[in-house]
Amino acid sequence: IPPKKKPEPSISKHLETTKGLDVCSEQTTRYSILEETESGSFVAHLSKDLGLRSGELTARSARVMSDDYKQRLLLDPETGDLLLREKLDREELCASMEPCVLYFQVSLEKPVQYFQGELLIQDINDHSPEFLNREMLLKIPENSQPGSRFSLKLAQDLDVGSNGLQQYTVNSNSHFHVVTRNNSEGKKYPELVQDRALDREEQAEMSLTLTALDGGSPPRSGTAMVRILILDINDNAPEFVNTPYEVQVLESSPPDSPVLTVLAKDADAGNFGRVSYGLLQASDEILQTFSINEVTGEIRLKKGLDFEKIKSYYVEIEATDGGGLSGKGAVVIEVLDVNDNAPELSISSLSNSVPENAPETIISIFRVGDRDSGENGKVVCSIPENLPFILKSTFKNFYTLVTEIPLDRESRDEYNITITVTDLGTPRLTAQHTITVQVSDVNDNAPAFTQTSYTLFVQENNSPALHIGTISATDSDSGSNAHITYSLLPTHDPQLALSSLISINADNGQLFALRALDYEALQTFEFRVGATDQGSPALSSQALVRVLVLDANDNAPFVLYPLQNASAPYTELLPRAAEPGYLITKVVAVDRDSGQNAWLSFQLLKATEPGLFTVWAHNGEVRTSRLLSERDAPKHRLLLLVKDNGDPPRSASVTLHVLVVDGLSQPYLPLPEVVRESSQEEDALTLYLVIALASVSSLFLLSVLMFVGVRLCRRARASSLSGCSVPEGHFPGHLLDVSGEGTLSQNYQYEVCLREGSGTGEFNFLKPMIPNLLESKESPHYRDSFLFS
Fold first, then answer.
1. For the residues of 225-274, what is the DSSP string, one character each?
2. Which part of the chain is the Cadherin domain (predicted)?
3. For the residues of 431-473, what is the DSSP string, one character each?
4. Element (DSSP H or E) covering residue 706
5. What is residue 6's predicted lDDT score, i.e. its pLDDT?
6. pTM of the model
7. Model confidence over 40-97: pLDDT tens digits?
8. Cβ atoms of 706 and 695 closer than 8 Å
9. How far apart are CA 554 and CA 644, in angstroms?
10. What was the pLDDT predicted at 24?
11. Which of 19, 179, 190, 404 has the most neighbouring CB atoms within 10 Å?
12. Which residue, 525, 504, 544, is CA-closest to 460?
């Protein structure tokens, strides 16, 4: 095949495609090329022969690998052509082996496929036959008969086939001619045939020119000189004791190691019975590997053996006596393999990065092998068991490293996978290769708050833009997948204007109060915050934030009773006959603050008669501290202070006028069972109050109203077992109901009635109608309702 012309080889292909990774070609694709073809020469249009489309070789990462682990072929991914990477020498690659075939494989990915190929390297006639010795000495007894044959040393021709050695010729003479014969290895050697009897006395020595010719076009040749010595008669040739000899030698045997000793015997005596040994028709390889002692017949190694190159030797030996007669023998030397080659690993495809959570992913495709044979050449491939990877055998000695389960970068982001290849020889040899695989991140983890809910405390009346707390979330991912942005989530409470109250720093989660908070308006509120990463798609989580506003003492006490905004000062009546501890009135006050800021205490600041009155600090009751005397003034002015328990405390003042009157009776306690039970009784009482008020304005109507009032009072007493007699004096009946929040916790009803026959100087002050309603004096809150008449 011309080197520059694209060959059109006959290609037989049969492809089977199966799912998975084990996809291979069962048929071999064969090509041929002449040796010594220049590198880069075209071999074949591989993509066309494999039935692949244009560009598919590049898309599927096509690679060409040779069995001898050397890259002798080159694949052009653009054109799909198979090219020579280097000039090939058939004699260097295959020596005398015929045919000379270079085996290679083509691997494809996505899916994984393999194609087996063979490249036949054809010989050209680039070597001439050569004799190892340019001169050969042949001793022939003179009694040798015509037709006797004498073997000569063969010539070596590195070419094979028709270009190899084909025949031998000898120059024209009257005594001998040459015939070409084949030895046991199929090599051609010359044999000198005697044509007529010899006469030593006529001619004791002669010289012939031996020519070796090959079958090339044009043929090449090589010559050697054959010197023939005619000897005296020797009628017994040496004979080997055993033939052939068989011996086994370890390939690890060092040079100069003995192989065996051969022995030949000759029945002649004297010089004709003395035997010398030599190698017969030995090739250059045998001559370089073995030597034989001419005297002892011991065969030794000249260099080390290599089982992987040559597994056995067939060595022909010759024993020659002193008379020139010789006997032939043979030695079969079998080279025993030893485990002297470690396994080899060749990476075909490698991916160093794998996304997490991915299904079964190919990490690497590689090939393993061992140059040894038998058990020494069998290999076992393994990886550590504690890794989430497995090895799959695909084609011949090809393996695929794949993930066994989806990987999790948050658990482990890098794997160092050591592939160990071990042969089964003794001792076992091992080769290792480490692959580092990085696990790339996927946004599969949502941000996680450090707490499910946060409680923040803010003092009311805070300054705007006050930092009130920080929320924090973490993300197990990396890079942008772990970058968190914080935000306020919409609230479901329409009354809460969250955007005007709170803001959040989107980068660090710091929360700020946008305006001053008022505890009295808003004690607590809650909202949700979100943390979102920047992955694709983005993941988020939520947390609840509860803000508690802490009370500050920013409200002074407010007096509900007695009212301080009236145009005229409020006056209370005090009977002159009142006992010490007599309840004059009760100051009712409230505070909008809470806690200890709303705990109120009462204090008498100033009085006309300081020793006459006392104020209970916890409930605001104003009482007498001693009996009144005639010298006491009839009118007193009291200044009271209501103070809370805040820091600093706030206060309010109360001014109270007390009028001392004569003739009022001692207070009495009405029955506790008396209650207002029905709306009809309340309406009657209201009617009574209206009538009593009208009686004050008109003296004429007083008598009529008093008559009606007495009748109504008697009727009420009959039905409720509680009442009072309305006097026919100058004091009209008067009812007043005051309710509010102060220092009492229950409603009170007081009734003041003028007794019959008591005149104008005596009043009846009734105690509360419901017992045990007063709370302890230390209670901070009270509710009071007074009914006066």
1. EEEEEEE-------EESSSSEEEEEETTPPTT-EEEE--EE-S--GGGG-
2. 25-131, 132-240, 241-345, 346-449, 450-559, 566-674
3. EEEEEEEEEE--S----EES-SEEEEEEESSPPTTEEEEE--E
4. helix 699-720
5. 40
6. 0.46
7. 888 888 888 888 877 788 888 888 888 777 888 888 877 888 888 888 888 777 877 7
8. yes
9. 11
10. 55
11. 190
12. 525
Q: Tokens at residue 486, please?
A: 């914080």
List the chain residues with pLDDT less than 50. 1-22, 665-682, 719-789
Can you read off the two tokens belonging to residue 347?
């990476």
Residues 33-71: b if buried by 16+ CB within 10 A, e if exposed: bbbebeeebbbbbbbebbebeeebbeebebbbbbeeeee
DSSP code of residue 374:
G
Q: In sequence order, which residues have a C-beta less than 8 Å from that of residue 635 and are 6 or more positions away?
A: 608, 657, 658, 659, 660
Q: What token pair was written down for 308?
A: 């992987």
Q: What is the pLDDT of residue 332?
A: 95
Residue 636 has which token pair?
Answer: 């007193």
Structure-block tokens of residue 129:
């036959």
> Is residue 534 helix, strand or coil?
coil
Contact assessment for residue 144 and residue 198, using Cβ atoms and an 8 Å cutoff: yes
Q: Which amino acid is at 116?
A: Q
Buried b (16+ CB within 10 A) or exposed e, 753-789: bbbeebeeebbbbbebbeeeebbeeeebebbbebbeb
Q: Return the SS3 of 602.
A: strand
Task: Decide: 264 and 277 in contact? Cβ < 8 Å.
Answer: yes
Strands (E), 110-164: 113-122, 130-131, 135-141, 149-151, 155-156
Beta carbons of 192 and 138 less than 8 angstroms apart = yes
Task: Return the residue matching tokens 């040899």.
Answer: 429
How many Cβ atoms from other residues are within 10 Å of residue 458's Cβ? Answer: 19
Are 368 and 344 in contact, with CB atoms under 8 Å apart?
A: yes
